[in-house]
Amino acid sequence: MQPTALITGATSGFGAASARRFVREGWKVIGTGRRADRLTALGHELGDNFQGAVFDVTDEAAMKNALDALPSGFRDIDVLVNNAGLALGTAPAPQAALSDWRTMVDTNISGLLSITHHLLPQLIERRGLIINLSSVAAHWPYSGGNVYAATKAFLRQFSLGLRSDLHGKGVRITSIEPGLCESEFTLVRTSGNQAAYDALYGGAHALQPEDIANTVFWIASQPPHVNINSLEIMPVSQSWAGFQVHREG
Ligand code: NDP
Ligand code: 8X3
User: Fold this and answer.
1) Closest ligand to residue 182's CA
2) Ligand lying closest to the C-alpha of residue 141
3) Ligand 1 pocket, mutate which of 148, 185, 197, 207 (most atoms under 8 A from CB)
4) Closest ligand 2 atom number to CA of residue 186
5) DSSP state of 130
6) Whose CA is nearest to atom 19 of ligand 1?
7) Which of 30, 99, 111, 222 has its CA 20 to 30 A from that of 21?
8) What is the best residue among 80, 83, 113, 186 to mutate for testing ligand 1's pocket, by most ligand atoms within 8 Å of CB?
9) Is the pTM of this model over 0.90?
10) Long-range CB contacts (< 8 A, 24+ apart) of 16-19?
């Protein structure tokens, strides 16, 4: 039987690259996102094994309607890749916009919880797999990471807790924690600041979305008795810079 993956946030970056990889390997893929034109284009590129589903992950009713409307050949989901997400802003907490904080929590946490809860019964029935896109920011604090990093720490802990809840049911759950990766992520975070994008990625030989897609597919290709709990992945060019100390006088 041809397995099916539902990948949220397939209009760009990791999600689009993962959709391409899974279809290339013979899977059926449901790709989601708000930008319908991009899902249509991906459908034209990938053919009949790709099905787009347009909804905003923060709109629970729209998510349920879109999944209920899936064609019969795309209703049995084996793998859920919770990838849709975003960072907004790089300012430290006192200068950050509360509305940005709320959007990150609504998207990265509440949206992910809604679709996970909705699909859980069939993922249990099918002994499926959930892959959550967390981040190195879940482990390694940096100034300006504040709420974005906290949402990603939630995902990591939620992934581990879900594993515990689903003990004995054969469901696999992984938290992927990538570091610097070149995608639209930084343009979204900086409201389209191309100079910030160029400064961050210039000369860095950052991870590419295809690197993450390879990782996602590798996790999904493990035999059913193997669970990758968490997987942190960085470009060779990235490492840690230690603590900061403020001194008086
Ligand atoms: P991109 O900005 O390239 O892609 C983000 C995807 O999320 C888009 O397809 C977008 O679709 C979707 N999305 C965002 N908000 C919503 C929403 N409200 N409803 C539906 N879909 C939404 O970023 P990446 O591919 O780099 O990031 C993918 C994930 O990986 C994110 O969760 C990010 O936090 C995480 N990550 C990224 C890293 C990086 O360095 N790039 C490192 C570590 C983790 P659309 O706009 O069409 O709705
Ligand atoms: C994205 C990686 O370091 O910009 O999750 O937070 S980082």
Assistant:
1) 1
2) 2
3) 185
4) 4
5) E
6) 56
7) 111
8) 83
9) yes
10) 16/42, 16/209, 17/208, 17/209, 17/210, 17/212, 17/213, 18/81, 18/83, 18/209, 18/212, 18/213, 18/216, 18/217, 19/46, 19/50
Going by alpha carbons, the residue nearest to atom 2 of ligand 1 is: 185
CA 241 / ligand 1 centre spacing (Å): 26
**Tens place of pLDDT for every residue, the chain, 249 residues?**
899 999 999 999 999 999 999 999 999 999 999 999 999 999 999 999 999 999 999 999 999 999 999 999 999 999 999 999 999 999 999 999 999 999 999 999 999 999 999 999 999 999 999 999 999 999 999 999 999 999 999 999 999 999 999 999 999 999 999 999 999 999 999 999 999 999 999 999 999 999 999 999 999 999 999 999 999 999 999 999 889 999 998
- Could you give the CA distance from residue 190 to residue 173 in angstroms, rounded to a whole number? 31
Residues in the chain: 249
Point out the ligand 2 atom lying closest to the alpha carbon of residue 145.
6
Q: Is 197 one of the catalytic residues?
A: no
Residue 230 has φ and ψ, to the nearest 5°, of: -150, 155
What's the distance, Cα to Cα, between the start and end of the chain in Å?
69
